[in-house]
Specification:
61% of the residues lie in helices and 0% in strands. The chain is an all-alpha fold. The N and C termini lie far apart (103 Å).
């Protein structure tokens, strides 16, 4: 077992740099930008957002086409009435 006086054994080094420790003049946002996981998370979130936008646009286009087709069918039925 190590003694409490030994540096670095059983406790973190006091002078070891950590990515989340504030440095003078740096904001929290700047510190987070240094973390590679934040970059990955932003890329994944951006990809999900782009995919969702594309899916919504495709759904709207399909809905417009279906609505137009429905109105055309309605017009064909109502314009050729039986006597």
């Amino acid at each position: 077992m190590s003694s409490p006086e030994e540096p670095g054994v059983g406790r973190p080094e006091q002078d070891a740099p950590r990515w989340n420790e504030p440095r003078p003049g740096r904001s929290r946002r700047d510190r987070l930008e240094d973390n590679p996981l934040v970059g990955w998370a932003k890329a994944i979130a951006g990809g999900i957002a782009d995919t969702a936008k594309d899916m919504l646009e495709a759904g709207r286009e399909g809905a417009r086409e279906a609505m137009d087709e429905g109105w055309e069918r309605f017009d064909r039925k109502t314009k050729q009435r039986r006597d």
